[in-house]
Amino acid sequence: MRPIHRHALLSAGLLFGAFGSNANNITTSAGTLSGNTGSHVNVRFSITWENSWRIDPDRWDAAWVFVKFRNATTGQWEHARLGDDVDHSPGTGTPAAVSTGLLTPGTPFDAASNWGVGVFIHRSAPGTGTFSVSDVGLRWNYAQNGVTYTEISDVRVFAIEMVRIPEGPFFVGSGGSEVGSFTDGAWTGGATIPFLITSENALNIAPSAGSLWGTSTSGLSTIGGTGTLSGDFPKGFKSFYAMKHEVTVAQYADFLNCLTRVQQNTRTLTNLAPGVTVVTNRYVMTNSIQPIFTIRNGIRCDQNISATEPITFYCDLDQDGTGNEANDGQWIACAQVNWDDIAAYLDWSCLRPMTELEFEKTCRGPLLPVPDEYAWGTTSITRATGTANEGTAAESTLLSGANANHGPPPGSLIGPVRVGVFAKAGSTREQAGAGYYGVLNLSDNLRELSISVGITSNRAFLGTLGNGALSTAGEADVPSWPNIHGAATSGGGRGGDYVNSPVQACVSARTSASSIELNRAQFTIRGVR
Length: 529
Hints:
By secondary structure, the chain is mainly beta. It has a domain of about 140 residues. Helix content is about 5%, strand content about 25%. The strands form 8 sheets. Strands 1, 2, 3, 4, 5, 6, 7, 8, 9, 10 and 17 form an 11-stranded antiparallel beta sheet that branches. Strands 24-23-25 form a 3-stranded mixed beta sheet, with no helix packed on it. Strands 11-13 form a two-stranded antiparallel ribbon. The longest helix is centred in the middle third of the chain and has 10 residues.
């Protein structure tokens, strides 16, 4: 077992010396195809992101990369079935490694089980700074997708920045006074008793010593009734990857652009159902004629659209009618999503929802808890009050020393901001507003919807991964995932946002952890794998 540490290198800001002014831009070139064999082909591309690190054998960041292709026969986008590690080439540039992410290893999806749904690309040796490789080659078994080479009309390569969270024990609950906090079941009042997660074995939930428990047994912060988390429920002990950033507006637009018309209508708020040809409320996530300034979601479509064909969405925060300009808000965290939107995006990208135990691991790491701490490990929080370079990749906050976008108004920023906005060159962990491993905006900007253990039905969650495909209606269709469209269960809110007070932003605050979130609101999309 790894020891529990009070201090670690990250607390001294080791990672954040690598941050530039814009630490969230990951780009891939357009995918090209080469080496067709009649059943396989290589998808070639380049990939770059500004902030990258590998600091020891256990800790590094990575890109989760997957491929979608358009079937010329159906006109629909499908998920490419990739080969195993030995089939891929890491390209040239930064010394890199490629490891295949299989489709839920050990759980067959179909007759050709355990095909590669994507790859992790990361540094193969210690280092920090810009990661850049060219001519990456991913081997794609397109015959397994049931198409011929001539039926491939288009290919797109997607990349999401991730951070590896190493295996090891950690505490939930801080020993503080957060609403609904986890605690050891021996707790009877006053300061909580941090509970140590030491394995992925079945975990007892009960008000008894050595069991996981909570300080609230009713309302939105409840721990729920007594029970058990099975050995399959992800508790955060084993290693996993977590998204470094909240999903951006541009990433959600890319997602929408790979869906059918019916699916697009499901995953937006404006009525875009087949048959609609004129759209008045063109800002489709807010069902409005212009962006709502407290939400800052610039995803829109044209006024005149086809009655049946999929719609092309783009970012137009400045409302000038020209999409995806430098100031159109592509890098702002995507607000105005609900649990179904989150689940659909994660299923489509072959990730899965995070559990609230994994959330605390991602924030705190292996350190001893600090009572009432935020994700950066201290009880100090400085609210941002203004922005510069609005809507651009260089969007920044004006107040020197600010490390969080939290509410309530007045005085706070109105709406979400660029992901990773506080991470600058030379930043410490606290200044960057970062969790122990370098994951950003965990205590601010938008709330995290995670799998709550306080909702009894959620305890059946198995950690199954998305398979890259949605239902015909555009819903996630992974068994064991909580869902609203099929049953009245969902994830609950953890972390802070630009609306609520900072007491809800503490790592162990469970103010709304067991809430049923039906509406699109100030939530974010953050998945794990």
